[in-house]
Amino acid sequence: MVLNLVWIGFILIGFVVALIRLAQGDVAIFTKVLTALFDTAKIGFDISLGLVGIMSLWLGIMKIGEQAGMIQLFARAMNPLFRRLFPDIPPGHPAGGSIVMNFSANMLGLDNAATPMGLKAMRELQDINPDKAVASNPMIMFLVLNTAGITLIPTSVIAMRQSIAVEQGLQGFNAADIFLPTLIGTFISFTAGLMAVAWVQRIRLWQWPIVALFAAFGVLMTGLYLALSGLPPKPMADMIGLIGSLVIFGVIVLFVAAGAWRRINVYEAFVDGAKEGFGVAVTIIPYLIAILAAISVFRSTGCMDFVIAGIGLAVGALGLNTDFVPALPVGLMKSLSGSGARGLMIDVMKTYGVDSFQGKLAAIIQGSTETTFYVLAVYFGSVNIKQTRYALACGLLADLVGLVGAIFVAYAFYHA
After folding, report:
1. Cβ-count burial of 149 within 10 angstroms (0-12 exposed, 13-18 middle, 19+ buried)?
2. What does the alpha-carbon distance between residue 408 and residue 346 come to, in Å, rounded to a whole number?
């Protein structure tokens, strides 16, 4: 219901704004909107089609892990925590292991691995969902924590900053200097999402497994920072890539080895799981194109520009510092479109400089927030959920708190 209202709102508001711009003499506005709309539909299809291979690979690997008992082992290991956060998931259910692996891939910035794992988790959560058209409590908790965008290592953002720094002729530039601020920003977003859903679902957070999670997260952030912060950009990027590759390939080897030890037919198990990849990828096409189309209309008509300009005027009228405003579109767009936000981030870096306050803030926002509408549309669409309940509200709240937190963190670290 909420996504329906948002979709209608984006289309109708975009149409009204386009009419106003036409009345002001912009005769090309509707051509621009239609071109962007058709391009977006193609992009949505290409994204879904591109998922087929990745989905087939990871669903095949997950099938091996499931038959080898490794998914159940992951679930049992996390049971003390999940029993508190996901009380409606039966102990030892495979959904627990899939959720753990999805979170692990997200933390390492491995989006290609995280998406199929997340879709697998959603399908398993749907199996225990009493009402197949309505999002269950575990689904909402999982989705909101996903949209909170917990990321330990913003690999892609660091790589893009380094590339732009080379273009701008910066010598000895440390593209990874946003590492700690991004960790803090993503932790703020994650905490906000968890608290919002826990409040609605009446989950008590002051329990030892949850406290232990926060403590472990803090220790891990500190350890990673101390271990990596002193490295030059290229060695740091190499080390980050090594960590991510070792973790993911290590899981694959572990599953295959466990399957061989348990004497299952690993090859056939992989093929059985991989067959499901095409069906899942095809299922999400209409949902993905629908949400991307609405976002395209809202953006191409200039509505996003009006929102940013209004925020800038309001902040200036209050006598507050407005240096953050040029980077704000990245945060607002990130909730709508990951690729759109990435393009805006690059634009900010090239306009103001990759080493400027605005450039650093744009990178922190990109690395510490997630694409809420995309995640909700794809994940819920993959299991045909019609009523998302309060998932969107909690996801957007986490994004908003994360955005504000990223701005404050950037001011604390970089602003004179």
Report:
1. buried
2. 21
Q: How far apart are CA 306 and CA 308, in angstroms?
A: 5
Residues with Cβ < 8 Å from 87, sequence gap 6 or more?
A: 137, 203
Q: Please, which residues bridge with residue 387 across strands?
A: 134
In sequence order, which residues have a C-beta less than 8 Å from that of residue 219 and are 6 or more positions away? Answer: none
Spatial distance between the Cα atoms of 202 and 394, rounded to a whole number of angstroms: 14
Q: What is the pTM of this model?
A: 0.72
Structural domain containing residue 163 = 2-414
Domain count for the chain, please give it. Answer: 1
According to DSSP, residue 14 is labeled: H
Please give the Cα distance from 343 to 122 (Å, whole number): 29
User: Using CA atoms, how far apart are residues 7 and 203, in angstroms rounded to an integer?
Assistant: 31
- Return the structure tokens found at 167: 């273009």
Q: What is the pLDDT of residues 361-396, one digit of tens each?
A: 998 888 877 778 778 888 898 898 988 899 989 988
Compute the CA torsion angle 119, 123, 129, 134 (nearest 10 deg). Answer: 50
Residues in the chain, pLDDT under 50: none
pLDDT at 126: 94
Q: Which helix (H) or strand (E) holds 291?
A: helix 285-300
**pLDDT at residue number 257:** 95
